[in-house]
């Protein structure tokens, strides 16, 4: 599992010259975020100063990480890139496809059986292409990345929104869609809008019941779930340096909940301690040589208002523990106000379950502090009033806390130890009775608490808080319990007051593990066979999309004119469809089923022009495809907003849609369409959307002259024989036109390989 120290040294070797050049270019001191961005430019040294929130810039990330749900399609695509190995260090982590039900050993065995073909596939592709593979049960992607791969000043992307967790070790780590991961794994650049910067100055020091989690719960309360959009949050100040590295990880992790691109902290002693404790003293030695480049220039933190687009100040000495929720992580309630809030809002007071762990709060510090509360309850003879569960973030953490007696402490309270995996955090929780849909309250130390997320019950009120608060609330069985002021009754009816939690930042005896669950790839993977059962309904090898025949597209049928909002969820729904993420044919049966047909205002009901009948969108698309008739999709404003999921572009491509013509695109989806060899077009005149009729046949008049900056002419032939010529703009540059010609970006990479 060895991390790549040579790669890290190379990053540091470039750092000084690139950052110095950027400072010169920008003409002022630089934040840490800017230093990392400018030292990871695809072009090498900066040639211009980029405008925050405006310029799109190509970067060269150092690492890629994928989780098992998103890795399937990413790896299926990568197999077409014609490469023998990934271009940058990459890991795959099996953590999302494991249910929490009975307890670790049973649940893991069930998952290994149920998802065997997926795990086997990911394992063999990883083995073949030089990708580190973390087996089911090894742990959660972000905890493993923090323990093994994150490093100060680095840049990584990951196919999961909480990739941002690695900011705890001073990285810029960003969650992306599979298409972006494939690009970087294939040796291409990765594009990002140069972010805005939010500074968070932490003064004072955490103490008593307050934990790092409370910092981000407070920030979420201030900024709301959208407040960080398009921005990197940079934390600094004495409060930041006095906090543990894993605590910083928790804060960065939940930066995803405020919509931030990512969050980060400057290199400090807490990072040195953590790196050293996790066997990476050589990273410390390398980082120390460039330490001044791994934090902002001193002027920035001395006068932050001048350098950040927005500044927030939090005094940790005054910060109260927070409990955020229900149903949204930005609804913050300080513990002292919970009684009144819960009463006023009718939230169920009785806590049914307390859950700790996940990628958000799985550190040794988290576990030992929560255990200190549990130990008090046991010592005082208090029977906990709620059930209690843990999903440890990694086997290394689980093994170490078992060795140190922490698991035994939890088990004395009847705690269920689930697999080292996402489990309840991603709805993989087979909670007894959840199907009854009863109104109830749970508390957890995870990051997200949207309706249905944990157990599928829309009436479960989930509250997010720190692990030690979860322990206290679960023991008391009350949401309005304030451990700082309230007492509990033990089994003899005596009053007991809990003492503030205590714990160790890092294990005194060091971390330990017997089998971390890592599979190193073959040195030479050329002979490794990738096995996919042709009868599988979950996995399907991809065939390259056909290249353009250099002719105008003619006789295309309108598949759907989507009305109003059409997000990637409308185009490729999630939920039960997640099962088919690795099977393009099967998942294509959800294509555009959530989009509203402008002609009848119904979802998943469009006219098949060949028969005159109305049918599901995928069925009509398949009917056209079967007889070789191309189709096009028309849409409204901001088409494809939402996630970066590449399925939303692959499915129409697979089902024979040639072009998507809309009033405007969400940029990531537009790029994804281009990458899949589709035509992503916008109405030159938005009002032309109204000219599109249900029975239209579309002919491209000048696609043979497709060139950057030159609009395309499309002829819409209506049912009565009348015609409208519509002008369509596009944003293809020369190389993107190359993707279209080749049939997809990957086809082009493969041709060049
Ligand atoms: Fe997994 Fe939940 Fe983290 S789903 S990756 S534990 S946010």
Automatic annotation (TrEMBL):
Record-given protein name: Aconitate hydratase A
Cofactors, names only: [4Fe-4S] cluster
InterPro entries from the UniProt entry: Acnase/IPM_dHydase_lsu_aba_1/3, Acoase/IPM_deHydtase_lsu_aba, Aconitase/3IPM_dehydase_swvl, Aconitase/IPM_isomerase, Aconitase_4Fe-4S_BS, Aconitase_4Fe-4S_dom, Aconitase_dom2, Aconitase_mito-like
Residues covered by the Aconitase A/isopropylmalate dehydratase small subunit swivel domain: 558-686
Gene3D superfamilies membership: Aconitase, Domain 2, Aconitase, domain 3, Aconitase, domain 4
Family: Belongs to the aconitase/IPM isomerase family.
Keywords: Iron, Iron-sulfur, Lyase, Metal-binding, Transit peptide, Tricarboxylic acid cycle
PROSITE patterns in UniProt: ACONITASE_1, ACONITASE_2
Database matches in PANTHER family: ACONITATE HYDRATASE B (PTHR43160), ACONITATE HYDRATASE, MITOCHONDRIAL (PTHR43160:SF3)
EC number(s) per entry: 4.2.1.3
Domain Aconitase/3-isopropylmalate dehydratase large subunit alpha/beta/alpha: 35-477
Pathway: Carbohydrate metabolism; tricarboxylic acid cycle; isocitrate from oxaloacetate: step 2/2
Catalysed reactions, semicolon-separated: citrate = D-threo-isocitrate
Superkingdom of the organism of origin: Bacteria
């Amino acid at each position: 599992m060895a991390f790549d120290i040579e790669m890290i040294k190379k990053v540091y070797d470039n750092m000084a010259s690139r950052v110095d050049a950027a400072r010169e270019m920008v003409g002022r001191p630089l934040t840490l975020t800017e230093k990392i961005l400018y030292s990871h430019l695809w072009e090498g040294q900066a040639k211009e100063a980029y405008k925050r929130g405006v310029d799109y810039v190509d970067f060269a990330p150092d690492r890629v990480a994928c989780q098992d749900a998103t890795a399937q399609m990413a790896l299926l695509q990568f197999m077409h890139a014609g490469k023998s190995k990934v271009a940058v260090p990459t890991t795959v982590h099996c953590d999302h496809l494991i249910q929490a039900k009975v307890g670790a050993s049973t649940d893991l065995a069930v998952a290994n059986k149920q998802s065997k073909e997926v795990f086997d596939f990911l394992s063999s592709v990883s083995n073949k292409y030089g990708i580190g593979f973390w087996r089911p049960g090894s742990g959660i992607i972000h905890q493993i990345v923090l323990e093994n791969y994150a490093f100060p000043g680095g840049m990584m992307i990951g196919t999961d929104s909480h990739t941002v967790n690695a900011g705890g070790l001073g990285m810029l780590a960003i969650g992306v869609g599979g298409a972006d991961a494939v690009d970087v794994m294939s040796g291409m650049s990765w594009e990002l809008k140069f972010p805005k910067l939010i500074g968070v100055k932490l003064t004072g020091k955490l103490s008593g019941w307050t934990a790092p989690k409370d910092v981000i719960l407070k920030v979420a309360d201030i900024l709301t779930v959208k407040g960080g959009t398009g921005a990197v949050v940079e934390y600094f100040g004495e409060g930041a340096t006095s906090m543990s590295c894993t605590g910083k990880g928790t804060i960065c992790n939940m930066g995803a909940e405020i919509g931030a691109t990512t969050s980060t902290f400057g290199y400090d002693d807490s990072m040195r301690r953590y790196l050293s404790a996790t066997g990476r003293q050589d990273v410390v030695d390398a980082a120390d040589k460039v330490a001044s480049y791994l934090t902002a220039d001193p002027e920035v933190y001395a006068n932050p208002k001048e350098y950040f687009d927005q500044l927030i100040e939090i005094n940790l000495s005054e910060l109260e523990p927070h409990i955020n929720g229900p149903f949204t992580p930005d609804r913050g309630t300080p513990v002292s106000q919970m009684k009144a809030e819960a009463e006023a809002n009718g939230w169920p007071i009785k806590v049914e379950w307390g859950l700790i762990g996940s990628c958000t709060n799985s550190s040794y510090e988290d576990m030992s502090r929560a255990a200190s509360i549990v130990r008090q309850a046991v010592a005082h003879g208090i029977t906990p009033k709620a059930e209690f569960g843990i999903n440890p973030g990694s086997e290394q953490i689980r093994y170490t806390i078992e060795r140190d007696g922490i698991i035994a402490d939890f088990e004395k309270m009847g705690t269920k130890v689930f697999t080292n995996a996402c489990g309840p955090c991603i709805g993989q929780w087979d909670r007894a009775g959840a199907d009854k849909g009863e109104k109830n309250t749970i508390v957890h130390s995870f990051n997200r608490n949207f309706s249905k997320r944990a157990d599928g019950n829309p009436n479960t009120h989930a509250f997010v808080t720190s692990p030690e608060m979860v322990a206290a609330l679960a023991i008391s069985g009350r949401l309005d319990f304030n451990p700082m002021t309230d007492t509990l009754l033990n089994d003899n009816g005596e009053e007991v007051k809990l003492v503030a939690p205590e714990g160790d930042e890092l294990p005194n005896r060091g971390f330990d593990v017997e089998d971390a669950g890592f599979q190193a790839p073959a040195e030479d993977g050329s002979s490794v066979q990738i096995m996919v059962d042709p009868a599988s309904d979950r996995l399907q090898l991809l065939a390259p999309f056909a290249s353009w025949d250099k002719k105008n597209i003619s006789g295309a049928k309108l598949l759907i004119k989507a009305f109003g909002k059409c997000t990637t969820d409308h185009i490729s729904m999630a939920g039960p469809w997640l099962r088919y993420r690795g099977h393009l044919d099967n998942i294509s049966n959800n294509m555009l089923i959530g989009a509203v047909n402008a002609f009848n205002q119904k979802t998943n009901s469009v006219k098949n022009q060949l028969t005159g009948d109305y049918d599901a969108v995928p069925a009509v698309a398949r009917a056209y495809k079967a007889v070789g008739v191309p189709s096009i999709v028309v849409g409204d404003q901001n088409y494809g907003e939402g996630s970066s999921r590449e399925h939303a572009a692959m499915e129409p491509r697979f089902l024979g849609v040639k072009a998507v013509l809309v009033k405007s695109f969400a940029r990531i989806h537009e790029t994804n369409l281009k990458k899949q060899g589709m035509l992503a077009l916008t109405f030159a005149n938005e009002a032309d959307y109204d000219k599109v009729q249900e029975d239209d046949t579309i002919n491209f008049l000048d696609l043979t002259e497709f060139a950057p900056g030159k609009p395309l002419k499309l002829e819409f032939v209506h049912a009565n024989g009348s015609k409208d010529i519509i002008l369509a703009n596009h944003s293809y540059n020369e190389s993107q036109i190359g993707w279209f010609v080749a049939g997809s970006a990957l086809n082009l990479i493969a041709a060049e390989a």
